[in-house]
Amino acid sequence: MKKNKSPKLELTTLERKELRSNKILISEIHKITLNEICSILKVSESRAKELKALSEFQSLPSIGPKFAKDLLMLGYYSWNELRDKDGARLFYDLEHLYGERIDPCVEDQFRFIIYYANNSCYGKQWWDFTEERKHYRSIYGYPKERPE
Question: Which of 49, 75, 110, 115 could anchor a disulfide with 87, C-beta 3.0 to 4.6 Å?
Answer without folding.
Answer: 110
